[in-house]
Amino acid sequence: MGALVKLLTLSCLLALTLPTLAEVGWWKSAQFYQIYPRSFKDSDGDGVGDINGITQQLAYLKEIGITATWLSPIFTSPMADFGYDVANLTDIDPIFGTMEDFERLLARAKELDIKIILDFVPNHTSDECDWFVRSAAGEEEYKDFYVWHTGKVVNGIRQPPTNWIGVFRGSMWTWHEGRQAYYLHQFHAKQPDLNYRNPKVVEAMKDVLRFWLRKGAFGFRIDAVPHVYEVPADADGNWPDEPRNEYVNDPEDYTYLQHIYTTDQPETIELVYAFREVIEEIDQELGGDDRILLTEAYSPLNILMQYYGNGTHLGSQIPFNFNLLANIGFDSDAYHYSELIHNWLDNMPEGQVANWVFGNHDQSRIGSRLGADRIDAANMIVLTLPGISITYQGEEMGMTDVYISWEDTVDPQACQANEEDFERLTRDPVRTPFQWSDDKNAGFSDAPSTWLPVAQDYKLVNVKRERGIALSHLNIYKQLRALRDEPTLRQGDVTVNAIGPNVLAFKRSLAGQKSYITVININDDVESINLDSVFTSISSQLQYVVVNDKSVRRKNDLTFSNSVLLMPKEAVVLSTV
Prior knowledge:
Layout: H1 3-10, E1 31-35, H2 51-56, H3 58-63, E2 68-71, E3 75-76, E4 88-92, H4 99-112, E5 115-120, H5 130-136, E6 148-149, E7 152-154, E8 157-159, E9 173-176, E10 181-184, H6 199-215, E11 219-222, H7 266-286, E12 292-295, H8 301-307, E13 318-319, H9 323-327, H10 334-347, E14 355-357, H11 366-369, H12 375-384, E15 388-392, H13 412-415, H14 422-425, H15 463-467, H16 473-483, H17 487-491, E16 493-499, E17 503-509, E18 516-521, E19 527-529, E20 541-547, E21 558-560, E22 564-566, E23 571-576
Parallel strand pairs: 1-2, 1-15, 2-5, 5-11, 11-12, 12-13, 14-15
Antiparallel strand pairs: 3-4, 6-10, 7-8, 9-10, 16-17, 17-18, 18-23, 19-22, 20-21, 20-23
């Protein structure tokens, strides 16, 4: 990293001013929690989590201070991609329960003041969806609901229309014998892409949103948004090939090509704005608290900022900020953390709210990716920076990736690879059953076996045990969550600095209130730091508010602001006195 970046991150940068209390809605300082339903809680003993299991454990979400939870797909599906291949967009898959079970979940969530957010998959359906069956049969109403092409004939052999490669390896095109044409699928062959250049598709998907909002969902996490549109076909109905990525030599691998024609098309942003109009429409119809959109996109920062809106149209309230998740690694230093945090805060449109994410169902867990001794640090970052915190189930107690052999692998992204390459692609290790206790199957299920194996360390890493350990990951998480109710944490400005390569620090401040300073020693050296040299208007003495198990200090201890001693991997929150 250049000297200029280091200088900027070391300097006391201007504080970012956040909205006043009157402007803050429920979601603007909320705690979101992702539930992967197959792995959260099994209520009926079949080894797979379900809706009733979620309902049974909603009180746990209240215990850890969650405002809203989004559920990975629970809709009718043949489960080729574990629910992301939806066959009926307005019904519940029997493996998870019934519509009545979902309604009971909504009722219990309302009692606990927890909002339910659903996963919405706009890019594709299952090939078993009635729409696709009718489209493949050539029915007039549905024939253009999906992307079809007869292909091209080269030397007498019919071939796919382009060289496009799918996320799950191999061609994006599969031949359909009945239709006598290829259909497009950016993911699995059982996940045909919808054709959003057909206005009927847009309206049909808007109706899906309306259905679940009227049912009682408070919004949607929108899956794989950048893939929804491809570049328009030319006058002859053809598309261009995508250029090579010269750094990748496996012609079946998704990264073999540069996906300039199949991701991040400008119409994608406009579709998000159209979906937000549905949210606003239902807000007007039903009243009550705001309903929201969260959008999943691993896209360049300048594109992500457009998801918020453009001054004329409202967009996604929460475009997922994957900066830390995607870019922070085991060897990242404090300058890198600071730079990535500033990237979002400094580029965010005025009046919008930041969000912070370190984990999800597609990426290696914090403790495996960064090291188990950095779990508390990651949770401190997510929970004490301004805006919205987003936690993937299990990260609050320090669950880590579980090794799953090739023979036991079920993730289609890995299964379509090979035994030599599957570990790079598999997402199974982060989707294993939630560890509730030291009982059989970690208290997740009474079944003889579970859909994925339970972690071997479940007797040490589980909710029941960590509740009883003062400085467990779970209890530190709960302390941090409680701190978020302080006005300074809800509304205060933020100043973020790297203090050398090993220490990240940021101060939250609000007129008339205590200031709070999060200080994290990322590496293995003992560090002595002078906070007076990087932050203005702090008291000469500071009080420890939250400590982790690396600290020799205890809560309520005092320290001088010009000589704060940090043990290796220590992470603390201090306050002015």
